[in-house]
Structure formats: C-alpha cells, structure tokens
Amino acid sequence: MRLFVKPAVLGLAAALLAGTTLAQDMPNPAIKARQSVMALRGFELGILGAMAKGDVPYDAEVAAKAAGNLVLLSQLDLSAMWPEGTDNSAASGTRALPDIWSNFDDVAAKAGILNEAALELQAAAGTDLESMKAAMGNLGAACTACHKAYRAPAS
Amino acid sequence: MARLLRIVLICGLAILGIGWFATRPEHVDASIVEAAVPDMERGETLFFAGGCAACHSAPDAEGGDKLKLAGGRKFPSPFGTFVAPNISPDPEAGIGAWTATDLANALLKGTGPRGQHYYPVLPYTSFARMSVEDVVSLHAYLATLPTDATPNQRNDVGFPFNIRRGLGIWKRLFFRDGWVVEGDLTEEQQLGRFLVEGPGHCGECHTPRNALGGLRLSAWLSGAPSPTGKGRIPDITPGGLDWSEADIAEYLKSGFTPQYDTVGGDMADVVANTSHLSVAERSAIAAYLKAVPPSGK
Question: Do residue B38 and residue B120 come from a single domain?
Fold first, then answer.
C-alpha cells in the first residue's frame, strides 16, 4: 500500500509530537514537500488551462508535455510526505484533515482515480483542444473529490 | 354593552378572515400545466442547472448515487434545521405520485400537494422564474430517475416558525415576480440571467438576507455569511470577483480556480451539476455575472 507509514516516519512523528511547540513553530518539511507537489501540479494545469480558456493558442506538443508531467506527478509515491502528526489539528500551515490518516484506503483509491484521469488527459491533450477540455473536466473532478473530503475549507 | 361586544366580535372575525385570506397558499392554473408538452432534454438541463441532486441526494452520495434523490441532507438556519425530503419517483416515499401540476405548485408557488406552504429552503423564490413548460419538462425527467424508499425525516423548526400559515405573510413580503437585473442584456446575458436567477438559484446563498430571511435584492450576489455559521459565501459581482468570463466558465466545468486550486465547500456540489451543462450555458452564466451591478457602488 502506497501510503503506508514507515516505522522511521512514525518515530519522527512521535518525536515531533513530544515537542509540540517545535511542531507548531517550525514549518514541517513533509508539509512543505507535499504542498510543493501540489504547486507543480497547479503549474502544469495552468499551461493546459490557458489553452482551454483561449488565452493562448492550442499547441498539441506543449499540451502533451504538460499532461505527461501531470501523469508523472500523479504517480509519485508521496507516502513519506504524510507522516502522523501533520494534520491541521496537530500542525500549523496545513489544511489536511485528520480523516486522511483513518481512511488511507479511500485516499489511495482517490489517488488512483486521479492517476487514471491524468492518463486520460495525456491521451487527449495531444490530439485536439476539445478532447483536452473534456478530459480536464474529469481531472478537476478527481482533484475536487479528494480536496472536498480531506481538506479543511480555506479560512 | 352586548351591542359593543357584538361589534368587537364581528371586527375581530373580519380581521381573522382577511388574515386567513391574505396568507392562503396560491396555486397554478392546472389547465395550463396540462396543456404543456414536456421536453426531456430541457428537463435534464434544468435538473443540472437547478442542482436538485446537490440537496436531495442522500448525504455523502457520490457518482451515480447522486441521481438517487433519497433526501436526508440537513440544512441548519437561524429558523431551525430543515431536512431535504425524498423526491425520487417512489410513489410512497418520494414524489412518484405527483402530477406535473403538483410539481408546478411546489416550484412556482411554494405550495405543497396538501395545500400547505413550503419553507423557502426550497428556493421557489428563484424557481418561480421558470416557465410552466420548464416544470413539466423537469417533471418528466425526474420520473426517469431511480426510485428510493427512504422515508422522510421531520424538520426541526421551533415556534413560531413551525406555523406554516405564517409563511403566507413571508411570501407576501419577499416572494417577487420578475428579474432582479433589468435593462439591456445581450441574448447570451439573458440566458445567463435565466440560469442564475431562475433554476440555478445562485442568489439564495450569494445574496445577503434581512432578519426575516428575505433576500436583500439591492445587494444582489454580493456575498453573505454562511448559514452554517462558518465562513462567508463570496461576492460574485464584478465588485468582488475579478475572474475573466473564461475563468468563471472553466470553474463551473472542471472546478479549477484561475490559480488551479479546486472548488471547495458546498460549491463543489454545485460544480458537480454545472459540469453537466453545455459550454454555451456556462459561458452565458459568466456573461451574466459580468453584467450584474458591482457591489459596493
């Protein structure tokens, strides 16, 4: 299972929990890392989105490249970026809900759906603009499904 | 003395009678409903534009289960907690036994099949901008959805709001005909106006309300506190939203914001519905939102 928490990570989490002030004051590198992955995904989506909205002309090659990167970004093993104690009740600077850690199977299933949607987008992005737009809709739904279930609303 | 008493009594009864008359639930003309011809494709569009499933599907329903309109979602408000009823075609638990006239009374007049007032948590204040043909089409489409036998739960509404007759007064005060945004609109903006002010009922959440729960139309779509008590529902007039029309249309399709974050909160349920609309319909919504008077002016 992808999101399995390694014993070493558990040890780290225990250490962080023991020093709660430390956990709250210092930006957690795992939180920073996973947010960076989200930023990368957002960047690639922005390239496709600009074409979908007609802000820049559609370019099959550029679109295929961005969609290919999204596939890679949806296949990364992020398990080490989700140590215990990095939910929004235990750590600052994150909107990750504690439910993530009690529903790893569902999170993994949703990650699988994201990967499928990214693969569909990769197949569509290089063919034509309309197919790409349709596939972006499915990818958006996959992103939203996980955010809706496991991310606290922006305050 | 007896004569005075009689006068007081007669006046009192007259006032009661006028009050009773003034608060009576209204009905559509059944002959007009019966003459209308349903258009199934139109019905499907209105189902998604109206977001029926966002409120009437079972709590936490996902995917295909969203078409099962079992009810059960709870809606807290300052007046009590309302529970969405089963509107699946089940003849017992749902509305399978309803005629198109029953549905037209519910959506266009806020009147239930037993002649009772509905609470405006069913946004008939917006739905009333649909035509009778629209409702007849929606009635035909709803009948094609899966049945569900989940029984309805009671609303948890305290005195005096549990007296439905009082809603007759509320309707007299706040149930208005006509469009909110008037003036010269392009054909596209007019389609957007129909979708936003009518079935889409965007104003029900995005417009602030007064103490009695009536929409403050002078602050149309300028944002409001969330009825859950947490957070705010955003200003979507040009005064509060600087997204381009293409940004808005993309958001309503894929849920992506211009920064490529995703739609959050209850709006995610809305986008799950608007993603089924046509490109032209989503663009029309965006065009209308740009034509709304900006907030703060």
Answer: yes
Which of the residues B60, B65, B244, B262 would you substitute to probe the A interface, choosing the one with the greatest number of A C-beta atoms within 10 Å?
B262
**Pair B79, B216 in one domain:** no
Q: Which long-range contacts (CB under 8 A, 24 or more apart) does B163-166 make?
A: B164/B116, B164/B117, B164/B119, B165/B20, B165/B23, B165/B117, B166/B23
- Do B156 and B198 belong to one domain? no
Check CB contact under 8 Å for B250 and A49: yes
Task: Compare all CA atoms of chain A with the CA of B243 and give the residue at the minimum distance.
Answer: A53
Q: Is the ipTM of this complex over 0.85?
A: no
Residues above pLDDT 90, as percent of chain A: 81
Residue B297 in this model has a pLDDT that exceeds 90:
no
Q: What is the pTM of this model?
A: 0.88
In chain B, the percentage of residues whose pLDDT exceeds 70 is: 99
> Can you give the pLDDT at residue A1?
44
Strands (E), B70-129: 74-77, 80-83
Of A42, A55, A151, the CB nearest to B260: A42
Q: A48 to chain B: nearest residue by CA? A: B260
Contact A42, B260 (CB under 8 A): yes
Q: A64 is written with which tokens?
A: 């295929």
Residue B279 domain-assigned (yes or no): yes
DSSP annotation of B30:
H
A129 by DSSP, 3-state: which?
Answer: helix
Residues of A in contact with B264 (CB under 8 A): 147-148, 151, 153-154
Predicted confidence at residue B18, as pLDDT, reads: 84
Residues B166 and B201 in one domain: no
Residue A24 pLDDT greater than 80, yes or no: no
Of 1.20.120.10, 1.10.10.10, 2.30.110.10, 1.10.40.60, the CATH number of A7-150 is 1.20.120.10
By CA distance, what is B249's nearest residue in A? A53
Q: Which residues 15-74 on chain B approach chain A with CB closer than 8 angstroms? A: 62
Statement to judge: residues B163 and B218 lie in one domain: no
pLDDT band at A115 (very low <50, low <70, confident <90, very high): very high
- Chosen domain end from B128, B150, B174: B174
Chain B closest-CA separation from residue A101 CA (Å)? 19
CATH of the domain at B224: 1.10.760
**CA atoms A108, A109, A111, A112: torsion sign:** positive
Chains A and B form CB pairs within 8 A to the count of 60
Among the partner residues B260, B268, B272, nearest to A45 by beta-carbon distance: B260
